Amino acid sequence: MLDIRDLTTTYGPVTAVDGVSFTAPQGKITAVLGANGAGKTSLLRTISGLIRPASGTTYLGELDLGSVAAEKMSSLGLSHVPEGRGVITELTVEENLRLGALGRADKSRPADLDRIYSLFPVLRERRHATAHVLSGGERQMLVIGRALMATPTVLLLDEPSLGLAPRIVAQIFDLLKTLVESDGLTIVLVEQNARSALSIADYGVVLNLGKLVVHEEAAVLAADEKLRHAYLGF
Amino acid sequence: MQQFVTTALSGLTQGMIFAAFALALVLIWRSTRIVNFAQAPMAMITVYIALVIIDAGYSYWIGFAAALISGLLLGAVVERVAIRPVENKPHVNAVILTLGLFIVIHALAAVIFGSRYRSFPAPFGLSGFQVGDFTIALTGFGIFSILAVVVVMLLLVLLFRFTNVGLMMRASAFNQEVARLLGVRVSRMLTQGWALAALVGSLSGLLIAGGNLVHPSFMDSVVVFGFVAAVLGGLDSPIGAVVGGLILGISLSFVSGYIGSELVALAALLILMVVLLLRPGGLFSHTAERRV
C-alpha cells in the first residue's frame, strides 16, 4: 500500500504538485490521469525520491519515505519505471535485467531471470543483444521486467503506452493486470492514454494543474461523461 | 625493411602508452562528461612518489606498486574533494576546475620534489634486441610497456563485463538517473571511476618515465596525444581509446621516421581532422544510438 499525504513539489516559483493526497491500495492498480503538465510525472518523481517534496510525504506501508534517497527505494520494494522507457541502450538485454536485481528488495529470493524470460519470451531470444536494437514495445517489456527483477511490492509506471501501437499497449496492460492478480503487486500507473488505463485500473486519480481533482473507482470515472470530457479528452 | 619494422615497433610501444593515457581520459569522460586536464599532473605526482621510494633504496616494483596505489587514492580524493561540489553545475565549471588543478599540482610538485630533471630507472633493458645482424627498436622495457597496458586493459574488460561493480559503473556512466532508480549508488561509482582512471593514468606515467628523465612537466606533451587518441576512438569507448592510441602512435612514428620529426604534431592534428570529418563522433562512438 502506498499512502501519499499532502505532497507538494515546486520547481522554483512553479508548483508542479499541489497538496496531493491519495492511497494506492495493495494489490490494485491506481491510474493517475490528466493533461500534459498536470504534474503526473513530477508526482512519481517525488514519490521515488528523485525530487525532494516541498512539503508532505509518502508512506510505503508503515514506512515514511520522506527522507529516503532514490537509490534506496528499490531495496525497500518500490520500483519506478521512468518516462521515456529508461532502457540503458548501451547494455545488453540481460545486463539490463541483472542490473534490476542488484538492488532487489527480497534478497532471499534468487534473481529470477527465467521468470522474466517466461513473461517476455522475446527478451530471451535477444538476451545477448545490445538493448538499442529492441523495438519500442520490447523496450517497455524490458524496463518492466527489469523493475520486476527487484521483487517490488509497489510499481510506479510512467506512461508505459507512450509511442506504442495499440496492440502492444493492450498486451502490456494485460500483463500488468496479470501481475497484480498473481503477485498482489500495487501499481501506480501514470497515463496520458486514459481510456486504456481505466480499462485495467481499479481506481482513477485525475490531476489538473498539480491539484487532485477527482479520485474515483475506475469504472465510475470511465462512465462519467462530464468528467471524461472535462479532464480526460474522450 | 629494417627501418619499416623499427618504425612500426616503436610506434606500437608509443601507441600503447597513448592508449593508456587516452583510456584514463575516457573512463572519466564517459561517466561524468568532464575532460580531466589534470590527468597528466596527477600521474606525474604518482611517478614522483615511485621515484622517492626507489631512490630510498627500495626495489623498482615497490615504487611501481606504490605509484599505482597512490594513483587510485589520488583519483578518489580529487573526485570527492574537488569535483563533487561542482558535479551538478554546468560541465564547463568542472573542466575549468581540472585546468586549475593542473596548475596547482604542477606548482606543488615543483615545491615538494624540486623542478630539476631526475632520472627514473627502468626494470628491463633499454637497448633493442638483436635479430641476426640488425638491432630492432623493440626493447625489454618496450615489451614490458606493451604487456602492462594489455594486462590492465584485459583486467578492465573483465571488471566491466563480468562483475556487478563493473555493471553498476557502466550503468552509472550511461544513465545516472535510471541507475539510481535501480538502487545503484551513483556517487560511489563516480569516485571509483575516477580512482580507476587515475590508476591507468599513473601507469602511463610510469611507462613514459621508465629510463627517462622526469621533471614536473614531463607528462604534459602526452596530454595532447592522449586527447587526440581518445577523440579518435570516440571519447565514450574504452576500446576506441586503445585503437585510437595505437593508430596515432604508429602513424606518428611513420611520419617521424619517413617524413620528419618536426611534423609529428601537425600530423596528429591532420589525423584528428580527417577522422572527425569522416566520422564526427569518432571511430567507436555510440552517439547516434544515445539519442534514440
Instruction: Quote the CATH topology of chain A.
Output: Rossmann fold
Strand adjacency order, main sheet of chain B: 1-4
Low-confidence parts of chain A: none
Distance between the termini of chain B: 49 Å
Percent strand of chain B equals under 5%
Order of helices and strands of chain B: HHHHEEEHHHHEHHHH
Q: Count interface residues per chain for the largest interface.
A: A-B, 26 and 21 residues
CATH level-four homologous superfamily name of chain A: P-loop containing nucleotide triphosphate hydrolases
- How far from one another are the termini of chain A? 30 Å
Shape of chain A: globular
Oligomeric state of the chains in view: heterodimer
Rg of chain A, rounded, reads 17 Å
- Identify the strand order in the major beta sheet of chain A: 6-7-8-3-9-10
**Number of continuous helical runs of chain A:** 10
- Label the CATH architecture of chain A: 3-Layer(aba) Sandwich
Number of helices, counting only DSSP H or I runs of 4 residues or more of chain B:
12
| CATH class identity of chain A | Alpha Beta
What share of residues of chain B is helical? over 70%
